[in-house]
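FIELD: query
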Amino acid sequence: MFDIIGTDSFLKYLLFLYKKGCYYMNNSKIKSSIKILLWAVFALYLYNLINIQLMRGYTVSEVFETLRSLNLTNFEVYAKHSISIIPLKTIYEYVTNSSKNGYWYVLNNIGGKILIFMPLTFILPFLFKKLRDCRRILLLSFCISLFFQIMALILRTGLFATDNIILNVLGGFFGYLCFHAFLMYTEKIL
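FIELD: result
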């Protein structure tokens, strides 16, 4: 069902590691090894998230060159055409133009913005117990998405769209639900 680029195998591997970790919870070395593995997976995810959300194919030197050449007049013109603050406007445009752009384009743009935040809110509650609260996860998803939108606008690597924030927060919520489903599933089999 989920076998997109080995996702099913990866989830089974994570489940295996989690079960082993629960079995050996009294052994602090194994417990810390699982934390280290989670931090490594999280660091890899953050690297990819930054590349996808901010860099978007630009090199670091190109981004810094954009910052150096930034002046307020040019930025105002750029920002005027790069900000979409009307909620659901972009999503509506994707869906209504789906026959022109293709359904894969729509699925990629809407589904991708949801999926990209799911790992964030799936992994973080394992690393920080305080983030096992839905409100905190939603607030964190909102703040991180807002940060990426503002930075993409400043760096001129993308648009600022409230729809992106809405879809990212929705993805954060789904990731949080997956975290809880994972906990419930592992409690049943342990």
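FIELD: remark
The chain is about 80% helix and 0% strand.
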